Hints:
Layout: H1 3-28, H2 33-44, H3 57-75, H4 80-95, H5 98-102, H6 108-131, H7 136-167
Helix pairs in contact: 1-4, 1-7, 2-3, 6-7
Amino acid sequence: MPPARAAAVFRFRVALGVFWIGLVLSGVTAFPLLHELRLLVSILNLEHGGGGVVGSAFGEWIVRVKNGLEEAHLRQPWLAYGTDWLAFGHLMIALFFVGPWLQPIGSRGVLRTGVVACLLVIPTALVCGQVRGIPFGWRLIDCSFGIGGLPPLLYCLRQLDQIEAADSPRT
Length: 171
């Protein structure tokens, strides 16, 4: 393999690996939401008057979500099944990027689909979050997942151009 091609493939795989790890982590962390929120409230000491975010909209929102999840788990534990499927969805989407990591050539369609999905996170978070009463700042955090996914995928597309150029016969 020519050095330029090998370097482009390496950079492609590192960038795609960063994207893939983000998908997997966002999926895996959707399973234990209540435990994570209890831990966050404890670490920030939100219910006992400590921490710098007490009284802030962020702190109040975290406590509200934790309390809502506790109530739902107590009265309607089957509702957590929805976030189990959210987690599963993230993990399944991550699987679609294993093929491009293994074989970059021919993966342009998967990468472009990933770019579109990242872009669609933004209107989904803004519109659905508004409908569901999610604070605007939290919706921006949700948008950041889509925005954060764009750079590695766009970089992969650029590296794919370099890989293909290295593969094309020179005249």
